[in-house]
């Protein structure tokens, strides 16, 4: 293990010389290799921070030992020292070009990079960043249990991802509440000896106590310059936007007048002109009923997919949902789609090891070449068989050619259509199709 770590450190030193340019969103001091990790070190570092066992049979003992960390928890946020954005800044290298043996895990049959694996890496990176922000130098292990609460937004800035070039992730805490933190992450790929931006991601993480049973306070955040002030202000705006979006949810409020008009016009366009009946429905040209755009899957949640707290790893759930969403978009559009945006993934309930994971994907909105896919996740235990929703995922794909329109038949499907339209409109500016290396499952 020590030899392997030395080899990794030598690789990081080699890659860092002239390549680790400052990331967007945060001005950096000269790089410190203590804050630079190889992708294989991230999960090991997290296990070390929380004292998690790599042996499934020892997980109960490891969790019992974490109870002793309660005394390190702060009684209030005022008792915790403030931290800066630079305190939590880290870089993680995924050397697909320098270490070809890593490629197979990330490779698709079309010789592209699996975006589902990137989602797993982002989830682990977000947790590690938050632990860096809340680091207690006097304690070997952290008393906090930090988990992903929300994937607020992932925007692709570039579609050309080669499996033969090194990738770099960077990120830091950008906003802090009392028990929650917003994390900004960026992904770059090496081209002509420079790391070019590939995606921007915003996650929201929450801190729990050492047994993951209740909320825990996190270190406050201080800003040091106008650039960081703007990042913090944007974090406040993001929080307000999420509250506003939730308050106008179609599960709580009726559609707007414009949305009601949209649905009624779609309904009228499906009435059979040969009959005078609301029940006789026909599809317009180049259209598909929403109910015919579904795909489903079932997975058994094995211990191999557990996180450091012995629940199912959130990155695994995102990868499985994304892969089903990609297959749904591919089946619907008739060509290979690529991901444009991911947003509003709320982790509502933890998934226990041994659960049955049911995923249902559905095309809920289309426009031009764009396909909006909603993936609903629910679990059931082998004992009670009761199904509980754990996540709802929203993915925006672009197809290589124009796709059919999707039409709702029922009121419930009409609400799914409007919800998909809202998520599509919340996407950043439309992107241009790149034909070289697109991002796939």
Automatic annotation (TrEMBL):
SUPFAM superfamilies xref list = Thioesterase/thiol ester dehydrase-isomerase
Q: Which GO terms describe its molecular function?
A: carboxylic ester hydrolase activity; fatty acyl-CoA hydrolase activity
Which branch of life, at top level? Answer: Eukaryota
Carries keyword Mitochondrion?
Answer: yes
Q: Where is the HotDog ACOT-type domain?
A: 88-211, 291-403
Keywords assigned by UniProt, alphabetized: Hydrolase, Mitochondrion, Repeat, Serine esterase, Transit peptide
Q: Where in the cell is it found?
A: Mitochondrion
Give the GO terms filed under biological process for this record.
acyl-CoA metabolic process
* This protein's GO CC annotations: mitochondrion
Q: What family name appears in the similarity comment?
A: Belongs to the acyl coenzyme A hydrolase family.
Q: What is this protein's record name?
A: HotDog ACOT-type domain-containing protein
Q: Which source organism?
A: Muntiacus muntjak (Barking deer)
